[in-house]
């Protein structure tokens, strides 16, 4: 199975591409924004394609040519304004979903925010609410398609080394999780069809990633 990783140059994306390339069952295609980002992926033997999420649907669909699955790990980042939140986390996500349809890619894995329900927008601090709203509407757009989707809601992201141990459920108490372990959860979800049509929260826990994902 060939997987297009959108936002591959992010920390979760890099971990995921590495895990995929270490597997004998999956193959990664890294979607990056600048050619100078390609060296990391070339070093692990992954194909790269240079496309900006602010490009049009047809351009993004071109990046998805020849793949079986799309994983959306992109994000505008904490140091950009509300305009980039809209253009990347909402419009970029929706365009990628639509590009999947154009390219005939049925499987779509979305990396979302921990809680994107309507109440979470109302409860979020003013500086964070636009991000939650963007994720909310991107998730809702995906759920209204006929794509084989999985939506993963990770807790607070850290750069700690992954433990390979997590807790997953439709609703959890807030917690943290290393980005490396989020990538492991994505990888396990790609290999487990029981995650299709599901969304779940994930934080650090005591259960192996494989066992936790299999329980979804």
TrEMBL record:
One Pfam family this sequence matches: NAD_binding_10
Top-rank taxon: Bacteria
Domain called NAD(P)-binding: residue spans: 7-192
Family annotation (InterPro entries): NAD(P)-bd_dom, NAD(P)-bd_dom_sf
PANTHER family: FLAVIN REDUCTASE-RELATED (PTHR15020), UPF0659 PROTEIN YMR090W (PTHR15020:SF50)
Name of this chain's protein: SDR family oxidoreductase
Taxonomic source organism: Ornithinibacillus salinisoli
